[in-house]
C-alpha cells in the first residue's frame, strides 16, 4: 500500500485469470506424478483433527470436536461454488513460479517467470503466499478428495526441500533479513513469513500425511530456536515487535505432534509480552497495535492452553476475544481500520476505505473455533456465522480473485487482486478459507451432532454409521432440511444452533410433526429420536429485520437481515475496471461521499405527512420484491430519498455504504 494509506507496500500490475478450469483435465490426471515415498499411507486421514484434540501431550480436551474433514462434503450451492473457484485459482499457479525466489535464495538456478505483487523478487514479504498455498492445497485435498492437487503440493514440498538442504533454513529471502532484525533495522516481517511457510508444511503433514513436510518444518523450527536463543530476553522482545504472527501457534503444534518439549519452550519464547501482559490483566490496550499479525499470537495462546493447561493463556485468549468482539468489531464482525486497532468502541469514527482487513476475519474465526471447542457455546458460532456471511462470502469475485479490505467508508467499492500480481496476506488467508469451508459446519461430542452452520452439505459419522444430509438455500430461504440417509448405530441427538437473530420463533419438525423443544435465540435446540433411514428434520427460522448501532454515535446504524449485513447501493459513478482490479485497494476521495441518511422526521402540524412517516419502531427498512441480480432486496422507510439495500456479500462492481445515518428530530410544518 502507498505510505500515506498503509505501511504495507504493493507492487501493482494487471492480469487476467485466463482459462484455468474448475477441475483438472483428463490429461492432467493421466500425467499426475506418483506420490512421494515420503508421504505416509494415512494421507487422507486428516490427522490434524486428531492432533488438535487428542495429542498425547494435551492437558485440555475439547468438549465438542470437529469432524475429520473427509467426513464432510459440500453439496451444490454458493459455498461449493466458492470452493470450486478457489480450486481453479490454485491450479492456475505453476510450481516453478511459486518456488522461484526460494531457489534463487538457495543458489539454485531458476529460469521461471517470477510472480508479482507481494511475491515479487524485490518484495521483502516474498515467500509468505507459498506457505498459504501449501496449506490451501492440503485443505482442498482433504475437503474434496482431490488427488492431483495433492500431487502438485507434494512436488512443491520436494522442490522446497532441495532449497532447505544446506543448513535447515528455508526462505524466499536471505538470512540477512534476520541480521537486520538483530541490528533493529527496518525489515518487513521475516518471522511473519517464516511462520506461513512452517504452517504450510505442518498442514501438509497433518492433513495429508506428508512426512517430508514435517521433517522440513522441524528443521525450520530448529533454525528459529537457535536464532532466538542468541538474544537476551529484552532484545528478543524488541524482535517480537516486528509482526512475528503465528510462530507461537506453529511451535505449539509441533510440540503436539512430536511431544518434544523443545518446541513447547520455543512457543513460550515467542510470547509477546507487550500484547499478552495487558490481556492477561483483562485490559484493553489494543489501540495503536497492528491487528492481523497480533490475532495469530492469541491463537497461539489458545493452543498453548490446550496443550499445557496454562490458565494464563486461557485468560489471554478469552479476554482478547471478548474485547475485540465487544469493542473493536463492526456490524459485520470484522475488525481493524488501516490495518490497526483504534480506541475502544470507535466504530462510526473508523469507517475507512481500508476497514476490516480480510485476514483479521479469517484469524478471528480460527480463534472462535478454538474457544468453541473448549466450551461449546452457540454464541461463538453466532459470531463465526456473521463473519462467514459478511466478510468471507462476497470477498471473492466471479473468477476467484480475492479482496484485501472490505471498505466501510460511504461510497467505496470492492477491489480484487489479479492472478499473478497481488498475493496480499489476504490472498493467502482467502485461499485457505475457501479450501476449508467444510471444517466447521458440524461438531460432535460423545452422543450428539452439533449443527452449527446452515450450508448444503453431507456428513458421514463413520464411527456411528450416521449419514446426514443438509439441504438448504439459506439465507435466501428460511428452511433447512436434515435427512437421515443412514441411521446411527446408537442413540444420537441432533443439536441445532438457534441464532441470536432468530427472535420470531423457530419451528422444528420430524417427519412433518412439529416438536415441542426449547428454541430460544443463542441456544441449541436438542432433537432426540429413534432415527431411521429416510427420517427428515425441517427447521424453519424466520430471518428477522434488525439494526446494529455504532456505539460511538447512536444515529449511525446498519441494517441486518438475519446474519446478513445490508448495504445501500450508491451507483457506479466514476468506477473503472482498473480501480476495481490490480490496485492496492480503494483510496477514498478528497471530498468523500456523504453518509446516506434515513430521514424519519415527523412534522408537528401536518397530520397527513405524519401518517405516512415511518413507524415508531427501530427498524427503518423493509423487504421488497427481488430482482434478477439481487434475490434479496430491501428499501429504507421515511422520506425521500429512499435507498435500496442488498446483502453486502452480494454487492459487485458498484459503490455502497454499510452504515447510514438515522435522522429523527421532529420539525415544524
Can you offer a commentary on this structure?
- With about 675 residues, the chain is an alpha+beta fold.
- Among the domains are: about 25-55 and about 95-270, no CATH class; about 450-540, Golgi alpha-mannosidase II (Immunoglobulin-like, Sandwich), CATH 2.60.40.1180; about 545-665, no CATH class.
- Helices cover about 35% and strands about 15% of the residues.
- The strands form 3 sheets. Strands 13, 14, 15, 16, 17, 18, 19, 20 and 21 form a 9-stranded mixed β-sheet that branches.
- The termini are far apart.
Topology:
Layout: H1 26-31, H2 47-54, E1 65-66, E2 72-74, H3 78-91, H4 95-106, H5 128-144, H6 147-164, H7 176-182, H8 190-208, H9 211-228, H10 233-239, H11 247-258, H12 261-269, H13 273-280, H14 295-308, H15 311-327, H16 358-374, H17 378-392, H18 425-433, E3 442-444, E4 448-451, E5 457-461, E6 466-472, E7 479-486, E8 493-498, E9 507-510, E10 513-514, E11 523-527, E12 536-540, E13 545-549, E14 556-561, E15 564-569, H19 577-580, E16 597-599, H20 607-612, E17 621-624, E18 633-636, E19 644-647, E20 656-657, E21 659-663
Parallel strand pairs: 4-8, 16-21
Antiparallel strand pairs: 1-3, 2-5, 3-4, 5-6, 6-7, 7-12, 8-11, 9-10, 9-12, 13-14, 14-15, 14-21, 15-19, 15-20, 17-18, 18-19
Helix pairs in contact: 2-8, 4-6, 5-6, 5-8, 5-18, 8-9, 8-11, 11-12, 11-14, 13-15, 14-15, 14-16, 16-17, 16-18
Domain Non-reducing end beta-L-arabinofuranosidase-like GH127 middle: 449-542
Protein name: Beta-L-arabinofuranosidase domain-containing protein
Organism: Acidicapsa dinghuensis
Amino acid at each position: 500500500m502507498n505510505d500515506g494509506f498503509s505501511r504495507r507496500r504493493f507492487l501493482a500490475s494487471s492480469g487476467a485469470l485466463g482459462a484455468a478450469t474448475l477441475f483438472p483435465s483428463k490429461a492432467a490426471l493421466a500425467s499426475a506424478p506418483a506420490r512421494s515415498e515420503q508421504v505416509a499411507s494415512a494421507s487422507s486421514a486428516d490427522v490434524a483433527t486428531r492432533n488438535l484434540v487428542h495429542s498425547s501431550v494435551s492437558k485440555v480436551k475439547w468438549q465438542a470436536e470437529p469432524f475429520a474433514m473427509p467426513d464432510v462434503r459440500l453439496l451444490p450451492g454458493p459455498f461449493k461454488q466458492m470452493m470450486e473457484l478457489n480450486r481453479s485459482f490454485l491450479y492456475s499457479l505453476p510450481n516453478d513460479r511459486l518456488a522461484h525466489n526460494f531457489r534463487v535464495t538457495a543458489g539454485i538456478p531458476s529460469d521461471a517467470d517470477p510472480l508479482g505483487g507481494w511475491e515479487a523478487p524485490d518484495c521483502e514479504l516474498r515467500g509468505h503466499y507459498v506457505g498459504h498455498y501449501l496449506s490451501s492445497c492440503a485443505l482442498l485435498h482433504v475437503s474434496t478428495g482431490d488427488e492431483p492437487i495433492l500431487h502438485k503440493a507434494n512436488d512443491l514440498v520436494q522442490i522446497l526441500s532441495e532449497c532447505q538442504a544446506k543448513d535447515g533454513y528455508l526462505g524466499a529471502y536471505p538470512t540477512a533479513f534476520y541480521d537486520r532484525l538483530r541490528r533493529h533495522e527496518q525489515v518487513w516481517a521475516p518471522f511473519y513469513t517464516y511462520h506461513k511457510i512452517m504452517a504450510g508444511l505442518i498442514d501438509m503433514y497433518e492433513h495429508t500425511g506428508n512426512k517430508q513436510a514435517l521433517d522440513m518444518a522441524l528443521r525450520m523450527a530448529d533454525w528459529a530456536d537457535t536464532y532466538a536463543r542468541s538474544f537476551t530476553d529484552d532484545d528478543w522482545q524488541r524482535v517480537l515487535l516486528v509482526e512475528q504472527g503465528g510462530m507461537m501457534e506453529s511451535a505449539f503444534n509441533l510440540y503436539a505432534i512430536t511431544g518434544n518439549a523443545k518446541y513447547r519452550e520455543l512457543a513460550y519464547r515467542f510470547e509477546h509480552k507487550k500484547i499478552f501482559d495487558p490481556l492477561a490483566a483483562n485490559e484493553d490496550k489494543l489501540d495503536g497495535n497492528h491487528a492481523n499479525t497480533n490475532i495469530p499470537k492469541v491463537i497461539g495462546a489458545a493452543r498453548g492452553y490446550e496443550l499445557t493447561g496454562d490458565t494464563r493463556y486461557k485468560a489471554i485468549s478469552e479476554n482478547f476475544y471478548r474485547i475485540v468482539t465487544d469493542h473493536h468489531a463492526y456490524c459485520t464482525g470484522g475488525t481493524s481500520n488501516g490495518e490497526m486497532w483504534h480506541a475502544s468502541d470507535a466504530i462510526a469514527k473508523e469507517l475507512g476505505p481500508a476497514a476490516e482487513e480480510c485476514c483479521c476475519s479469517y484469524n478471528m474465526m480460527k480463534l472462535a473455533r478454538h474457544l468453541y471447542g473448549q466450551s461449546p457455546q452457540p454464541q461463538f458460532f453466532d459470531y463465526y456465522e456473521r463473519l462467514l456471511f459478511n466478510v468471507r462470502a462476497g470477498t471473492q469475485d466471479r473468477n476467484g480473485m480475492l479482496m484485501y479490505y472490505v471498505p466501510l467508508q460511504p461510497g467505496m467499492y470492492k477491489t480484487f487482486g489479479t492472478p499473478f500480481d497481488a498475493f496480499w496476506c489476504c490472498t493467502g488467508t482467502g485461499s485457505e478459507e475457501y479450501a476449508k469451508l467444510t471444517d466447521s459446519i458440524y461438531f460432535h461430542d460423545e452422543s450428539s451432532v452439533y449443527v452449527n452452520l446452515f450450508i448444503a452439505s453431507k456428513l458421514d459419522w463413520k464411527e456411528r454409521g450416521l449419514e446426514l444430509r443438509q439441504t438448504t438455500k439459506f439465507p435466501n430461504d428460511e428452511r433447512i432440511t436434515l435427512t437421515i440417509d443412514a441411521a446411527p448405530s446408537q442413540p444420537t441427538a441432533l443439536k441445532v444452533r438457534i441464532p441470536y437473530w432468530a427472535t420470531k420463533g423457530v419451528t422444528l419438525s420430524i417427519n412433518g410433526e412439529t416438536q415441542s423443544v426449547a428454541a430460544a435465540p443463542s441456544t441449541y435446540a436438542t432433537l432426540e429420536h429413534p432415527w431411521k433411514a429416510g427420517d427428515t428434520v425441517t427447521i424453519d427460522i424466520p430471518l428477522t429485520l434488525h439494526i446494529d448501532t455504532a456505539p460511538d454515535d447512536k444515529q449511525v446504524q446498519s441494517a441486518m437481515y438475519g446474519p446478513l449485513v445490508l448495504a445501500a447501493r450508491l451507483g457506479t459513478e466514476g468506477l473503472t475496471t482498473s480501480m476495481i482490479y490490480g490496485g492496492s485497494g480503494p483510496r477514498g476521495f478528497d471530498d468523500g461521499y456523504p453518509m446516506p441518511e434515513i430521514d424519519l422526521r415527523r412534522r408537528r402540524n401536518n397530520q397527513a405527512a405524519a401518517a405516512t412517516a415511518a413507524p415508531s419502531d427501530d427498524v427503518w427498512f423493509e423487504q421488497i420484491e427481488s430482482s434478477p441480480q439481487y434475490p434479496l432486496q430491501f428499501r429504507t422507510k421515511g422520506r425521500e430519498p429512499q435507498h435500496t439495500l442488498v446483502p453486502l456479500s452480494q454487492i459487485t462492481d458498484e459503490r455502497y455504504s454499510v452504515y447510514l445515518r438515522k435522522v429523527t428530530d421532529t420539525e415544524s410544518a
